[in-house]
Write a structure and sequence with these properties.
This protein has 465 residues and is mainly alpha-helical. The chain has a domain of 117 residues. The strands form four sheets. It has a three-stranded antiparallel beta sheet with strand order 1-2-7, covered by helices on one side. A hairpin with a 2-residue loop joins strand 5 and strand 6. Helix 2 packs antiparallel against helix 3, helix 6 crosses helix 14 and helix 8 runs antiparallel to helix 9. The longest helix has 36 residues. It is globular and about 55 Å long. It starts with a helix and ends in an 8-residue tail after the last helix.
């Protein structure tokens, strides 16, 4: 027994050393880069945000390490890394506030800065107060993807457009970011509940595969005769290239579309095998589905690498204009974040597949998780309500109408209705357990589309956000 404990301690120390050395190396490299280029003060926004990314990444690795091994020390250091990332995130937000002269709420970049800050804060609260030690394995990868996305979004401090020059901006977006972060935490808690409530592992596999299929099916909208269409980049303006006002210039990367089609088929395969297993009541199909899931994650990693290599600083032809036009990752931030999100989701599923019993032992009882999820949504819902009410009042002052059926307004109302449905069914019908967890997961899916999808796909009066 002592030998096994000694081996576990040795393994635990090895991972801690590897993660710690990796973080120190990245921080030291960044420090040398700042010293060499004199790129602003060390405490500047960009440097602090990069520091936060390193700490959040280290925390993600340690939380997952805890999930794999159950070694308690990982949670202690993961929590410390999260707290240090939160401190750096706070410094970045404060510096942005100082430089812009207003709270960081006016652009998608600034809202993400506030969103990640709130997610980190709620992660620490959920972990320390409610003892949900594994929650960071979901929320920290979300923070990492969000910060990477921020690196690709325009971050220049610009004067506020007239519509945003109002105190109500600060109130409205503060409420939105607090609400959305609470929804993110409720999603993580609902997933933890389903694990503790003995939901079948193959059902998690189907949900994960369905999410991956959604990502790559959406990307197939850019399929062009075997190529893949991306927005061109204007290096002189450091922004997306436009054919005319509001019309983006697309270029086609040859053959990349075939690779994404292959990945789509790979993500569909485990879903098909799951359905066959359920229909035929044959568990061997589930085993094959898990193998197919592993292959799809590998192919997604290959596709991500190919996309980065060919999109960054490339030049390709456009069907709408003559000549070759440059590309950059900054022109396709949502595509990149979708691919990263799919890979993270797959890795979390593999963690569940390999460590199901161990994860259940690490989690609080299912009834506690259900109650904490409910309390979190009880915080999110009033914030969503106030956000919509303040937004309507502000819209009337700015545009002369309380409601314009703008896409962002419409989807904010849909988000509100989903969470209102959750609370209504819980209070009046006594819905608890899995049905309530499904509602919480659906609500966060709608939040993601409202926050990112509407901004990118359905621009309207909120196009600046």
């Amino acid at each position: 027994m002592s030998r096994a404990r000694a081996e576990q301690t040795s393994t635990g120390n090895a991972l801690l050393v590897m993660v710690g050395l990796g973080m120190l190396f990245l921080l030291f490299t960044a420090f040398l880069g700042v010293m060499k280029t004199h790129a602003g003060p060390i405490y500047g926004e960009a440097n602090m945000l990069y520091t936060a990314l390193i700490f959040y990444g280290g925390a993600s690795a340690l939380y997952m390490g805890f999930g794999v091994t159950g070694i308690e020390r990982y949670v202690k250091f993961a929590s410390l890394s999260t707290a240090l990332g939160f401190a750096a995130n706070t410094a970045a937000a404060a510096h942005r506030w100082y430089m812009a002269g207003h709270p960081p709420f006016s652009t998608l970049y600034e809202m993400l800065l506030s969103f990640v800050w709130t997610v980190a804060a709620l992660t620490l609260i959920a972990e320390r107060r409610y003892k949900v030690k594994i929650i960071g394995s979901v929320t920290m990868p979300l923070a990492v993807v969000s910060v990477i996305l921020m690196q690709l979004l325009p971050s220049e401090v610009r004067p506020l457009v007239p519509a945003l020059q109002s105190t109500w901006l600060h109130v409205h977006v503060t409420l939105a970011m607090l609400a959305y972060a609470a929804c993110a935490v409720s999603f993580a808690l609902a997933m933890m509940f389903l694990i503790q409530d003995d939901m079948k592992t193959e059902s998690f596999q189907a949900l994960t595969a369905l999410g991956m299929v959604a990502v790559y099916a959406g990307m197939m909208l850019r399929f062009r005769a075997g190529g893949f269409a991306v927005v061109a980049w204007d290096p002189t303006q450091n922004s997306e290239a436009f054919l005319s006002r509001g019309v983006r210039l697309f270029v086609t990367i040859p053959d990349l579309g075939w690779l994404f089609l292959l990945v789509l088929l790979a993500t569909i395969t485990p879903l098909v095998l799951y359905v066959l297993g359920r229909v035929k009541q044959d568990g061997t199909f589930f085993d094959h589905a898990n193998k197919a899931m592993f292959v799809s994650i590998l192919l997604q990693a290959v596709a991500l690498a190919a996309f980065i290599l060919r999109s960054q600083n490339g030049a390709y032809a456009s069907p709408d204009a003559d000549g070759a036009f440059p590309t950059a990752l900054a022109a396709s931030p949502f595509l990149l974040s979708g691919m990263l999100g799919g890979i993270f989701a797959g890795l979390l599923y593999l963690l569940l597949l390999w460590r199901r019993e161990g994860l259940q032992k690490m989690l609080p009882p299912a009834s506690n998780l259900d109650q904490i999820t409910y309390k979190t949504i009880c915080i999110a819902f009033p914030l969503l309500t106030l956000m919509i009410a303040v937004g309507a009042y502000w819209a009337n002052q700015t545009w002369g109408s309380y409601w314009s059926w703008d896409p962002k307004e419409t989807w904010a109302a849909i988000t509100w209705l989903v969470y209102a449905g959750y609370l209504h069914m819980r209070v009046t019908r006594g819905w608890k357990g899995r049905r309530a967890a499904y509602f919480a997961i659906l609500g966060f899916a709608v939040v993601i589309f409202t926050f990112f999808g509407v901004t990118y796909l359905l621009p309207g009066l909120h196009a600046y956000a």
